[in-house]
Design goal:
- The structure is a single chain.
- With 357 residues, the protein is of the alpha+beta class.
- It folds into 2 domains: 5-125, no CATH class; 194-337, no CATH class.
- The chain has helices spanning 5-14, 40-43, 93-101, 112-124, 285-289; strands spanning 20-23, 29-36, 56-57, 60-61, 64-68, 73-75, 78-80, 107-109, 191-192, 196-199, 202-205, 226-228, 234-235, 244-248, 251-255, 267-270, 275-276, 305-308, 313-314, 317-319, 329-335, 352-354.
- A 5-stranded antiparallel sheet has the order 1-2-5-22-8.
Length: 357
């Protein structure tokens, strides 16, 4: 087996211990960012002292979750987090999950709950990451550029940069605007997240970060999916008064009533502009902690968009891509395209976590 101990020492030395290298069951390395446990109040104004759902796995609070610093490449059917690479694309959800779980115990696709905690942390700390969201550069800061790995083929931007090498942008493209941060959460390529879906408009989750457990079944017919009641409790899908998303008056609306928009067509709005149905007096805290409804309606979320289709099963991908401009970002989430479990030609990569050390 190759020995990457010097690589690990170099990464830890250069980052002051804020990055590390973890090895999978084939002793192959990935650069990881330890993301420490936090309460909801730490990252959301007015939040409770409850631990954010992204830090609970199998009923146990985790002191930290290790998150891939980079969008993944794939070697020997295993995902790896390494710098200056062209991220793996054209991956469906089940493939992405398999590439992560193949790495061994504790490894998994990033849970949506963890992605939400990262997004809220960035906003709370004033470091909303910029990135490759406008053909190789940031739409608002065009002097900030990455190193291209592919080039656009569409006529309107033919020959311009498309994807960029992982981590090749400036520090402001990292989650904390520092060299040791998680890279490329805004743009470059959409990223799969695990443990959330919309089923015929009803919002369903794998509780907490339990999607990280190897035995968790996230199949279309799995009984591990839970719906969320208007008071925030978790119940079986199809129960009364569960939270749903609807499309009303040009906005995504959080509701507990029947879905009125049933056309098979995706729609989107800025995350800040989501509305609350008249039947809901307030959104429960879990909805705000999992980016189902903004904790500050009308606030500044960088212009990031949520996209939705209320028909069938929709799985989330996050962050946006190189052509999405200001609508891309760490609060950007798409659940509007047809189900991608079996669609092979989707331009989506993956990022992974590890919770068991």
């Amino acid at each position: 087996m190759p020995n990457f101990d010097d690589f690990k020492l170099a990464i830890e030395a250069m980052s002051g211990g804020k990055n590390t290298v973890l090895f999978d069951d084939m002793e192959m390395p990935s650069v990881m960012v330890p993301f420490p446990k936090m309460n909801i109040s730490d990252i959301m104004d007015g939040g409770s002292q409850n631990v954010h759902p992204g830090f609970k796995v199998g009923g146990v609070d985790k002191d930290k979750i290790y998150v891939g610093k980079y969008q993944s490449i794939v070697l020997n059917d295993r995902a790896y987090s390494l710098p200056m690479r062209d991220p793996k694309t054209y991956v469906n959800f089940d493939q992405a999950l398999t590439f992560c779980r193949n790495k061994g115990k504790g490894w998994s696709l990033v849970p949506y709950s963890v992605w939400c905690a990262i997004a809220l942390w960035c906003r709370k700390n004033g470091t909303m990451p910029r990135g490759n969201n406008y053909w190789g550069k940031d739409s608002s800061y065009p002097h900030e550029k990455g190193i291209p790995t592919t080039y656009e083929t569409s006529e309107s931007h033919k020959g311009e940069p498309a994807r960029c090498a992982t981590g090749s942008g400036p520090d402001t493209w990292n989650h904390n605007w520092m060299p040791d941060g998680m890279a490329d959460l805004n743009g470059n390529v959409w990223e799969w997240c695990a443990g959330k879906r919309v089923k015929d408009g009803e919002i369903q989750i794998i509780p907490y970060a339990n999607s990280m457990l190897a035995e968790t079944n996230m199949g279309a017919q799995s009984t591990e999916w839970k719906a969320i009641k208007a008071d925030g409790t978790l119940v079986e899908p199809g129960s009364a008064d569960t939270l749903k998303w609807d499309w009303v008056s040009g906005k995504i609306q959080l509701t507990k009533g029947a879905i009125t928009y049933t056309t098979d067509q995706g729609n989107g709005c800025q995350y800040k502009d989501m509305t609350l149905a008249s039947g809901l007096s307030a959104a429960p805290e879990i909805a705000k902690a999992l980016l189902l409804y903004p904790d500050e309606p009308g606030g500044d979320y960088g212009g990031d968009y949520h996209w939705l289709n209320t028909r069938g099963e929709r799985l989330p991908f996050c962050g946006g891509r190189w052509s999405h401009g200001s609508s891309a970002g760490v609060f950007g989430v798409s659940l509007d395209f047809p189900p991608f479990r079996l669609l092979l030609r989707c331009r989506l990569p993956l990022r992974f976590c590890r919770s068991v050390i």
